[in-house]
Write a structure and sequence with these properties.
- This protein is an alpha+beta fold.
- The chain is built from twelve helices and 20 strands.
- Strands 5, 6, 12, 13, 14, 15, 16, 17 and 20 form a nine-stranded mixed sheet that branches. Strands 1, 2, 8, 9, 10, 11, 18 and 19 form an eight-stranded mixed sheet that branches.
- α1 packs parallel to α5.
């Protein structure tokens, strides 16, 4: 027996689940295939991973009816403080200057995942297969047929559109033969939660150092989510330190704006690269999120860019559905590809140029970038433009990213 569905999403992470919620709420039948068991720990954990949500991402979750469940679990960012360690440059973004209640929010990945899974469970037209894997697929004029492995059972499923949301190591992208450009930054992100001696007052810090950016994002209480970028050859040393040594090294790199660091949670290390797929669509196929673009974590843009992929693809699909068009047709999917191109290029260029600019140690380069930071701090129009970029409000926005329903 062959199962049929409108949309088959490979990858049930935060981006894939968000697309399933958006299209499921709009009435399409959706099947999500996820390689890992979909379970969320119900108990709070000091070491839970955190994600920076831009203002535009908050609007997407609000339009999906999920923000009410999230708003008491997130920490708003009122100010962003950017500085250059050992140099004079700095700039600050404040919510009042942007006319918003918050520049962004810091959310637990656990809470985001639980909220999305709870919503998927309530949608009778959405089915989740996990742990399951895509074996192979064939594209036809009227759909795409797939073979899936669910435990020890092989299932056949036919969809009108297959969406790859299976991350940077996307098997769908590889099976399609879509080439991607990759650049190893030679850096590793060390992730942990830390407790500070002084309250963060809802300030997010991005401090550039000679080994890479160091970000501290406000969380509940006096906790902060740390994303510390170090050179790849330094990561083993940092990961091998005991907690006291780790906090001492962090103190030396960050300074005392938040007082003394008094506690560190479990550490994780991730090598950093820039990945860009050269195509975002094929007949009856679309790529979203990290399967399409994997970014450096500077400025926290990666998940937010993927969520705007979700909003744009959902809008294109539903517009086609209302017009009686084939949602998997290439003319329909080309709208998604063309629409997302400018935003993806803009954010990739922004994050990559930040890494490159602050990676230079030559005194003339350092002086020019610090002078530019001070000029930005004193120029309201430039600061508003910079704020719109970081908040995910630049360019033509999908309906969901404007807080409107599909």
């Amino acid at each position: 027996m062959i199962d049929e569905t409108d949309i088959l999403i490979i990858g049930g992470g935060l981006v894939g689940a968000s697309l399933a919620v958006a299209l499921g709420q709009a009435g399409l039948t959706v099947t999500v295939v996820e390689a890992c068991p979909l379970s969320v720990d119900q108990q709070p954990d000091y070491d839970e991973r955190s994600i920076a949500l831009a203002q535009g991402s908050q609007r997407i979750f609000s339009a999906l009816g999920l923000w009410q469940s999230l708003q008491d679990e997130v920490c708003p960012i009122h100010t962003i403080h950017v500085s250059d360690r050992g140099h004079f440059g700095f700039t600050r973004l404040r919510r009042e200057q942007q006319g918003v209640p918050a520049l962004g929010y810091v959310a637990s990945a656990r809470v985001l995942g639980k909220t999305l899974l709870d919503q998927l469970d309530r949608l009778q037209n959405v089915r989740t297969l996990a742990p399951a894997q895509l074996i192979d697929f064939r594209v036809h004029d009227d759909g795409v047929s797939t073979r899936l492995m669910l435990e020890d059972q092989t299932l056949e499923c036919k969809a009108r559109l297959l969406v790859a949301a299976d991350g940077a190591q996307s098997s769908v992208r590889d099976q399609l033969g879509i080439h991607s450009t990759r650049r190893d930054y030679g850096q590793t992100a060390v992730i942990a939660n830390v407790t500070t001696g002084r309250g963060h007052e809802n300030v997010a810090y991005e401090r550039f150092t000679d080994s890479g950016p160091l970000a501290l994002l406000p969380m509940s209480g006096q906790r902060c989510a740390l994303v510390w970028t170090v050179r790849a050859d330094q990561s083993d040393d940092i990961m091998g330190l005991d907690d006291a040594q780790f906090l001492s090294r962090l103190q030396e790199r960050f300074g005392y704006r938040l007082g003394r660091f008094v506690k560190a949670g479990q550490r994780h290390a991730y090598p950093l690269q820039l990945l860009q797929a050269r195509e975002s669509i094929r007949p009856r196929m679309a790529l979203i999120g990290n399967a399409m673009h994997t970014l450096h974590p500077v400025a926290g843009q990666g998940f937010n860019l993927g969520l705007r992929d979700v909003a744009a693809l959902a809008e294109v699909v539903m517009d086609a559905r209302r017009k009686g068009l084939d949602i998997g047709d290439n003319t329909v999917l080309s709208r998604y590809a063309d629409w997302r191109q400018a935003d993806q290029r803009r954010v990739v260029a922004f994050t990559d140029s930040m890494v490159r600019l602050f990676g230079h140690s030559l005194p003339p380069v350092a002086w020019l970038r610090d002078a530019g930071m001070l000029a930005l701090d004193m120029c309201p129009p430039a600061k508003r433009w910079f704020g719109r970029l970081t908040m995910g409000s630049a360019g033509r926005l999908p309906r969901l990213a404007r807080g409107l329903e599909l």
